[in-house]
Each structure stands twice: as C-alpha cells, then as structure tokens.
Amino acid sequence: MPVLASPFAQLDLVRHPEQQGEPLQAFDAADEYLLSHLHDQGVSTQSRVLVLNDSFGALAASLAPHVCLTSSGDSHLGYIALQRNLERNGLGAVPLAFVPASERPQGPFDHVLVRVPKTLALLEEQLIRLHGQLAQGAKVVAAGMIKHLPRAAGDLLEKYIGPMHASLAVKKARLLIASAEQRPAPASPYPTRYRLDKPPLTLLNHANVFCRDGLDIGTRAFLPHLPHFHHAVRAADLGCGNGVLGIAFALANPQAELTLVDESYMAVQSARENWLAALGERPVDIHADDGLAGQPADSLDLVLCNPPFHQQQVVGDFLAWRMFQQARAALVTGGELWIVGNRHLGYHAKLKRLFRGVDQVAANPKFVVLKATK
Known about the structure:
alpha/beta, Rossmann fold, seven-stranded mixed sheet
C-alpha cells in the first residue's frame, strides 16, 4: 500500500469502506501538493488551519500533530476514515475538531485547505460560510486533480474570498490560491426547494443533496410503487437523501416506524427538516451513519433504497452491493428490500446472490423496481 509522504508525516492510509484488493489509494497528488504548499508557507502549532472535504483523512492526519486543526466535510464515511487512519498511524490521541458540513466551522482561520468536491454547490456554500471566519492575511487554497478541477471552482473563490491565481501543475494536480479580502456578507442560494404533487410535498435541499433542484428520475419511478401495509412495520430509508422515499412511505403507512439514514450530513439535515414539515412530531430516527452498519440484526421488516453508483469521482456498484448486504443483515426472515435501479446495472442478478426471492415490481425503459425477500 503506498505511503503518503509529506513534510509533515509519512502515513499509511486506507479508504473507507475498504475493498478487498483495493485498487485505489486514500490520497492523491493534490493532497501532496496542498501539504507541500502549506509547509512552504510556514506554520506552527499555533496556526489555525481549516481542512475542507478531506475524503479519507489524508490532510487532517498529516497536519493534526503540527497545527491547531479543524476538519469539516459532508461525508460520515470520510469521518470514519479519518478516525481509522488516525488510529492506524498512532495518532488517535492527537486533538482535532471535526465539524459536519451541516454546521459552520468557527474561526478565525489562518489557512484554509480545500479539496474541491464533485458538487460545486457544496464548495459555494462552504466558501459563503467562511465569511467572517478568516484571519487577516488568510489564504484559501483549493486543490484537485486537473481532470476533476472545473474552471467554476476558481470563479467561486474569486467571488467569495478574493483575488485568485492558479499554480503550475504538479503530477497532474493544481492549486487555486485565493487571498482573503473584506467583502460584504454574501447571501446563500441554499437550501433550495421544489414541489411534488404526489404526495403533495415541498422538499427542502441543502447544498450537497443529490438532485437538489428537482426529484431524481429514479425516485420518480419508485414513488408510485411504494408498498402499503395494514399493520405496523419497522422500515428504513437507506441512503435517504432529502427523505422523500421515507416521508412518502410514512404518509401512506401511518402505523410504520421509520429510520432514515444517509452518509451525508446535509442530506440528514434536509431529511429532518422535511420530515418535520410533512409529519410534524411523529416519531422518527434520522441520522448519519455508514448505511445500516449500526442497525441491529433482524430488526427491520422493510428497507427502501435508491442506491448510489459512485463514491466521490469513482463510479461502480461497490457501495450499492454493500448496502444490499447491510439490508439483508438488518431484515427479519421474510423481510423485504425494495430498490430502484438503472436496468443496465443488473441488480436483479446481484440481489439473487443474497436473497431467496427477487421479483420485479415495475419497470420503464430506464429503471426497474425490485423486491428482494430474505
């Protein structure tokens, strides 16, 4: 396994969740470039450094023993990876603060290091929240591999932070370096809202929520086919996003007990606010987690899921397969996993490896809705 070597540390890092024979490493040249640049700027144990969107903890684990560090991001999986990598490298006792992206980091910060996220709306909201949190003379340095670094990222730095220039490329990575200057407090365009007719709902979406400007077409295909029960059931919306599946199911099944879970803190924040608007004080468990990893075995009658097919920039069905395994473990015998997926992903065959029965509930030219029975 490659070691991240920087002026601050030599670290053995893993991704989370881990794959057997993991083909990808937990850091890249953009992490190395950021750390080298910060070292060249000069920092001390009193330097206040904010790290944003550190996918697997490479930046935070490197810096934590050397500066006063705050790390913030929207991935609970990323937070778990950070904790594991600190422990793995004997840094478990090193103090650092972690702030979910649903909350505002409290400065002032002398340096801000940003891994540019896939969703630029998240970057925009994070830059907006830096207003009033930067020390005089602070620099905000964003980084990414050039193939994943859109021009718009630099435009956002110019808009919300100050004058920006791009570095030379090193190992196919680039830095965008912005000098903080006094600006009027910006207004955030987030959260966004959209309206559904069936069921009649107005859904709020914080910046990093998938399809925050309108219902995604997979969920649209799923909603008319959600199951109905005439008795109490224990159900989970796995990867709940803004909570639309769980909320729609709860409205149609007034006796159901619901758990909504997502690895995105902003998704969980959105789902909580949407549940309160639609269902008031009806009891519910909405939280960030590594899927159903924390759910007791044999404790659910039903799991609803519109599974993701990527982790950051990496496309594949690894996360979906893991969610299917978690659902099977959490379901009682006879319990059901209902999913929607693109036809070409072949989830029917994959589910048959885990469940005793798999039935097609509905289909259109692009999507299938499947029911898998344990």
